[in-house]
Amino acid sequence: MKNKLQELLDAKSQKHFATTSGTDMHKRLEHVFFHSDGPVGDKELCDKISKNSELVKLMGPLSKTEVPIAGFVNGIFVSRRIDRLYIDKDNKQIVVLDYKTDTSKDVFRDKYIIQLKEYRDLLTQVFPGFTISCKILWLCDFTLENII
Hints:
The chain is α+β, with helices and mostly antiparallel strands. It has one domain: Lambda Exonuclease, Chain A (Alpha-Beta Complex), CATH 3.90.320.10. It is built from 4 helices and 7 strands. Strand 3 and strand 4 form a beta hairpin. The model has no long low-confidence stretch (mean pLDDT about 85).
């Protein structure tokens, strides 16, 4: 019984740590932008991001952070907040960038795909005729994965 209680407490502590560190990382990324005169924001994150030219582009002047969106998907009202949204109106292209702090990329993958499909479906209603793609930025190793 004592071991079981300790396991529960450890699991709760790990979940709290993961949630807190994920929230902190999202807040830090919210203030990272790459402009023509250089990066703005957390130096450590800017250094990691600057190693990937696609990430630099997605965090440039055409991007917005913490973008609220709401509407109906499959007849159900949903309200979401997109971590980073890149909108290129000239080329009619949108990229959703979702941050994930998981250390295992496969545990919640199906859940994340559903989430990103909802984003795409909502954005299609707001931006008809645009090409919409969705990517995950895995913060455990700063890799970028195309999902949709």
